[in-house]
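Deliverable D4.2, example record:
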Amino acid sequence: MRISEIFKRASAALERKKMVSAIILASGTGDRFRIGTGDRLETIKKQFISVGGIPAIVRCAAEFEKCALVDEIIVVTGEEDIEYCRRLLEGNIKKLTHVTAGGETRQKSAMAGLDLVDESSDFVAVHDGARCLVTADIIESVLREAFANGAAAAAERAVDTIKEADCDGMIINTIDRDTAWLMKTPQAFMADMYRAGVYSAEKDGVTVTDDCMLVERLGFKVKAVDCGRENIKLTYPEDRIIAEAILRYRDIMKRGEIEEDNV
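Output generated by the structure prediction step:
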């Protein structure tokens, strides 16, 4: 599909309610997420780790369920986890349409989810299932920016000084912190734009580390949406402790026990 045709179809979508499909990627192997000590050390898939008493994947899906702009939810997981994942989600996640097997890479898992997106969908939001502290408000903010700009992604402004180093760890450059962003998910795109990016990368044998790169390489611009620091990713065991602390903080703020300006 030509880029001009993508924008033409997007303009038509702006004149009516947009249909949004969410793809939650939850097929990681959990190689870096190990708990226990000594002989009791075990690897656990982070998408199923309990955070505040709720499995991470369930927390993610519940927030997409809560977001009024999302119409369908597709979960991509390991083939051996499909039935377990379905049992966790079905009944509570009414917008769930598919639970499917992912590929050997994140990129191929995204393609597996994309292949199941409703053909009427105008926008696709892709989310990492290990980012279980995402909220319906964050999802809505990203989607509304995508509606206005064609593509948008959750992000966090850099607060530390960022250095570029060579393969030996020697610093070769200092990146301007004022223009640096730490990219997160969800990342949302016009469906045709995302589809073009995914299949173009596959055809060219290009591997990317986030979905924005798929459309950037075709010349599209992506709006970074500042969603704060709480939308962390579960990567290492200590991340669960941090995530649960953030949940406690949110609960305290909700009860009004601490004024935000004094935190």
